[in-house]
Amino acid sequence: MVRNLNHDTFLVIRYVKRRLTVLIDIDGKHEWRDCIDVPGVRLPRGYYFGTSSVTGDLSDNHDIISLKLYQLTVERTPEEEKRDREVFLPVVDNLKLPGMEAPLEPMSGLALFLIVFFSLVAIVFAIVIGVIVYNKWQEQSRKHFY
């Protein structure tokens, strides 16, 4: 959407009262269009905002011309203030993030027994095959000296 345009494209990122909103202007008309709007975003305090124009591909060339940051003063209740201080990892309410799956249920006793049993059978089978192959190799090496 933003390749080979004759005008600048703009992006606005807003985070107000646990709502992350991204607006874009790619038509050069100074009219903002919604890109994403995610409620329930909780971000920790004390981090920095960073940008990069690196795309990983030499075919794209993006320049970050300017960056304007504003800190909005929003009135909060003491309860909201306390909740915001307790956030250590970025979290989105009612959204499952990659890598944050629920822990797996423990295996039943029968499943654990079967896994151990078949693992031991496979190890014994491998040892028997190894001994047979070694004996055949020893027998072949003795025949060469006659």
UniProtKB/TrEMBL annotation:
* Membrane-spanning intervals of the chain: 110-134
GO molecular function, a single term: D-mannose binding
* Domain called L-type lectin-like: residue spans: 1-72
Instruction: Kindly give the membrane topology term recorded for this protein.
Output: Single-pass type I membrane protein
**Organism per entry:** Halcyon senegalensis
Q: What's a single GO CC term here?
A: endoplasmic reticulum membrane
Q: Does the keyword Transmembrane apply?
A: yes
According to UniProt, the name of this protein is LMA2L protein
Subcellular location, principal: membrane
Q: Where in the cell is it found?
A: Membrane
User: Which terms does the UniProt entry file under GO BP?
Assistant: endoplasmic reticulum to Golgi vesicle-mediated transport
| Gene name of this polypeptide | Lman2l
Q: Which UniProt keywords apply?
A: Membrane, Signal, Transmembrane, Transmembrane helix
Q: Which InterPro entries does UniProt cross-reference here? A: ConA-like_dom_sf, Intracellular_Lectin-GPT, Lectin_leg
